[in-house]
Each structure stands twice: as C-alpha cells, then as structure tokens.
Design a protein that fits this description.
Number of helices: 21
Structural class: alpha/beta
Largest sheet: 8 strands, parallel, barrel
Strand order of the largest sheet: 2-3-4-5-6-7-8-11
Distance between the termini: 43 Å
Length: 523
C-alpha cells in the first residue's frame, strides 16, 4: 500500500514539474511559509510597541524576544533550504505546527481559517513535490542534527533563563515621595470573602479621620441587610467630615455574555441609585459620598474561567469566550445605558464612576472595543464616566494563578495608569491581611504591612492619583487597631521600591495585546 502511494506521488510530482505550473506552485509554497514568519514578527512587534505605549518597560519584553529568537534564526534557514533544495521534512513539521496554532485561534480570528487552509495546502504540496529523505548519508545527517539541536537548545535556553534571572533580581526601582487619596474598602455583604462585621465605633472613626483615610462602601443594593449596615455607617459618618464613596456591585455570579445581561445589570444599578438617594434624603444625610461607583468587574465565575484558560494556555477556550462577548454585545446599547446611569447620578448631585478589571487598560490604548466589552464598557462609554477605577488585585490574581504573583502586578498596571496622565484613573489593590475566601482558599499575599506599603508606594511613585485598599475589617483584624497609623506613618517616608519580574503577569497582558493587534482581521 505504501509502495502504491509512493508510485502515485512520484507520478504526480513528475506531471507537475513537467508543466508550467511547477515553478508557480514552488513559489506559492515558499510564500506561504514566509507568511508565517511575517505573522510571528508582526505579533512580536505589536506586543513590544503596544505594551511600551501603555507604560510597560521595554526591558519587561526581553523574555518574549528571547522566545522568538530561535524561531527567527531557524525558520528562515529551513525555508531557504526548501527553496534551494526542496528539503521538505522540517518544513512539513513546522507547517503542521502552524496549522494547529491557527486552528486553536480560528474561533476568535476568523481570517486564520484562511491561514490554516493555506498551510494545509503548503504541507500537501511539500509532501508531493518536496524531498522527504535526507540528501546526505544518515551518518552525516546525524552529526548535523546533533549540532542543530545543541545550538537550538542553547538559544532556546535564553527564554527560561531570562525569566529566572529577572524574577530573582531587581529589574526596576520606583521613587516614592508622597501619597494622595487612600480609601479603605468596606464590603457590606458576602463578596469573594465572607462578610466581616465591623461597627462604626468612635475609635475607628477617629483613626480614619486622624490618618486621613476615606471609606469605600461596597453595597448590594437588593440586599436589605446590606442597606441596613450602610444606614448605620451613614448615621455615624454624618457627624464627621470623613470622605467616602459608594460602590454598587452586581453580585449575581453569572456569565454576562449578551447585551441583555448587561441591560439587566444597568437596570439594577439604576434601582440601587434610586434606593440610595431615597435613603440619604429620608435620613437627611449632609455628608454625602464624593462619588458613586458601579462595579462592572468580572464575576468570580467569569474571572476563574478567564484565568483558568490563561493559566492552562487554553487558546480555544479563551478564544470562544472572547469571541462570544465580541459578537453578542451591542456597543450602542452599552453607551446609551451608560449615559442614562451617569445622568441619573448627576441629576441627584452625585458623580458617577465605574470599576473595571485591569485588562481594560490593555484594550483602551488603540481606540477599539474588543476585550473591554467583557466588563460592559466600550471605548466611547469610558469617557462618559467621571472616574475609572481599575481593579489590579494581587489577591485575586494570586488565588487563580495558584501562588503570589509578586509586586510586579501593581508595578506594571500602575505604570500604565500613570502613563495615561489622567487623574480620573484610579487603582484598587487586593485584600490586606490573612483571610480565607468563600471557597476555602487562604490568601496571605499581604500577610504583613511591609509588602502592602511597598505596593502602595510603587503605585503612587508611578503616578496613580488614588488607591483603594481591601478591606478595613480585615486590616484591623489582621494587624490591630494601630494598623492605620502604621500605614500612614510609613507613607510619610520617602523610599525607593525595588521591583522584581513576574512573567505570568507580563504574559497575561501580552495575550490581550497580541490578540488585540489582530482585531482588524477578526471578521
């Protein structure tokens, strides 16, 4: 059977080469192989340029460059060998790998169907027209193969070596001199962590006021218990000048992948706002919140799904999720709903802000709306909010990435926030203290105040105007009643904060960036 295949292949090869189409087919195959290199180069340049534009240091991209170097060294040599000698064994292997890669991403970038078909065609043509047997003896080929593999692996070691070295040595330093607004998160319901009760006693209020901390109340507007807890705090705050804000959360833990899902969320926010305004009027609240925020960050289920795909390099799952959001969400309706909720707040004398996941930063810089729709915002709707708070929680990332992602998370995203030069962009950090979440997972990334304070200083040193810390009850429970004074005193001291590298966070941002660079051919 194999002999019959080889005979037919030889006959077809001779027929094609004897015709005028033989040379055209050869050039077509080489062109397809070369196009793969062009796409790789384009992707790498996009990562370097786009991330640099949003404040990520060029040094941080070094491992990606080292990852691509072996490809850019050996792929052209392999293609050249096929062009000159029709050596097809390695090109066939490479082309099959590219076919698998394109097949994983076709759900997201539909034009990759064309690249998949072209590579499959090139693979078939090389099997027919190429030379699959070595031109030299097996002994000579073996020697060359050993040299080839040794050189390839030596160059390939640059990638893991760079990650290891950068992860253990200082790659940057942030100069900190002073802080600005700091708000302490005060959840009034079970969120990712169990609700921890803390009454508005005089000691806490005096500590907040003396140390110039504000409060950020996270509310489930549909929960009467949550609103009763807020009422207790409003009564106490009405006798002080402590600044505070309100964060309305869409606590339903579902996948929001259609416009209807976000319409329900925005309608809930409108009801929350009405309930809150009526409450403040009935209580005759004089110390009103500085702003009300609407939390559009991913729900716990959505976040776990996204990070699971990223952690396991599940390109198919990642592509299906993002494509579903891209296809199913109507931008114009999101914009109209945003206008309505912002106008409602303004008409009641309140500013309106939004809380979104930090990956929105990686989408906003090129003026399109690919990933940010996952958070219920668009490029045009972002400008309608009075303030935007980016959720760069070291706790949240670390729980889903199995262990602590390090100070690089806050450093990287705060550089991007600071790079915008927009004082209306703020940063929300992770949970301070030791706690067990609702799934029984222990969180201790900010298990001591020194780690927390260094992240705060890094964020302010990079130009962030306002920071929210999670959360007041856990801070006081973990570090005692003097914790607020300790934090404030530490922030009064200038410091140079050393930064080490976490490739997982860089790779997370790079994935969003490189896919975003192909949005013009997504179809």
């Amino acid at each position: 059977m194999l002999d019959q295949f080889l005979d037919r292949r030889q006959a077809l090869k001779e027929r094609i080469e004897s015709s005028n189409s033989g040379l055209i087919i050869h050039y077509l195959t080489v062109t397809i192989l070369s196009l793969n290199i062009v796409i790789i180069i384009y992707a790498v340049i996009s990562i370097l340029v786009r991330l640099t534009m949003i404040g990520v240091a060029l040094l941080d991209s070094l491992p990606i460059a080292f990852y691509v170097i072996p490809l850019l060294v050996f792929l052209p040599l392999i293609i050249r060998d096929y062009y000159l000698n029709r050596s097809a064994l390695m090109p066939v292997v490479i082309t099959l790998i590219m076919c698998v890669f394109y097949l994983l991403l076709v759900r997201l970038v539909h034009l990759f169907y064309l690249m998949f078909a072209m590579n499959l065609l090139a693979c078939s043509l090389m099997v027919i027209l190429g030379r699959l047997r070595p031109k030299t003896s097996i002994k000579t080929l073996g020697k060359k193969g050993v040299v080839y593999l040794v050189v390839l692996n030596l160059i390939g070691l640059l990638f893991p070596a760079s990650i290891l070295i950068m992860g253990q040595t200082q790659i940057a330093a942030v100069e900190y001199s002073s802080s600005s607004s700091i708000f302490l998160d005060m959840p009034l319901y079970n969120w990712d962590f169990p609700y921890l009760d803390h009454a508005p006693d005089n000691q806490t209020l005096n500590s907040l006021q003396n140390n110039e901390f504000g409060l950020s109340f996270r509310i489930d507007g549909y929960s009467q218990t949550s609103m009763d807890r807020l009422q207790s705090w409003l009564t106490a705050l009405n006798k002080t000048t402590i600044e505070y804000n309100i964060v309305f959360s869409a606590v339903h833990d579902i996948y929001r992948n259609t416009t209807a899902d976000f319409v329900r969320t925005f309608n809930a926010f409108a009801e929350y706002t009405t309930i809150f305004v009526n409450l403040t009027q009935s209580m005759n609240v004089l110390n009103l919140p500085s702003i009300i925020y609407f939390d559009l960050t991913l729900t716990r289920t959505e976040w776990q799904s996204l990070l699971s795909s990223a952690r396991s390099i599940d390109l198919t799952g990642f592509s299906i999720t993002i494509r579903s959001i891209s296809d199913n969400i109507n931008q114009s309706i999101i914009i109209e709903m945003t206008k309505e909720i912002v106008n409602q707040a303004h008409n009641n004398g309140l500013l309106a802000g939004v809380v979104v996941d930090a990956f929105v930063l990686d989408d906003i810089q090129d003026g399109d709306t690919l990933f940010m729709k996952y958070c219920g915002v668009t490029y045009d709707s972002m400008s309608l909010w009075d303030k935007v708070q980016y959720y760069a929680s070291r706790t949240r990332f670390s729980l889903e990435m199995i262990n602590d992602v390090g100070e690089y998370l806050v450093y990287s995203y705060s550089r991007s926030v600071g790079n915008t030069g927009d004082e209306d962009y703020e940063l929300r950090l992770g949970l301070a203290g030791n706690a067990t979440d609702n799934e029984g997972r222990q969180s201790s990334v900010y298990g001591n105040l020194d780690v927390l304070i260094k992240d705060i200083k890094a964020a302010y040193g990079n130009g962030v105007s306002c920071i929210v810390l999670e959360s007041l009850p856990f801070i006081l429970t973990s570090f005692g009643d003097s914790a607020l004074s300790t934090i404030r005193n530490a922030l009064g001291q200038s410091e140079t904060v050393p930064i080490t590298y976490t490739f997982r966070i860089y790779a997370f941002r790079a994935v969003f960036t490189v896919i975003d660079s192909f949005d013009v051919i997504m179809l």
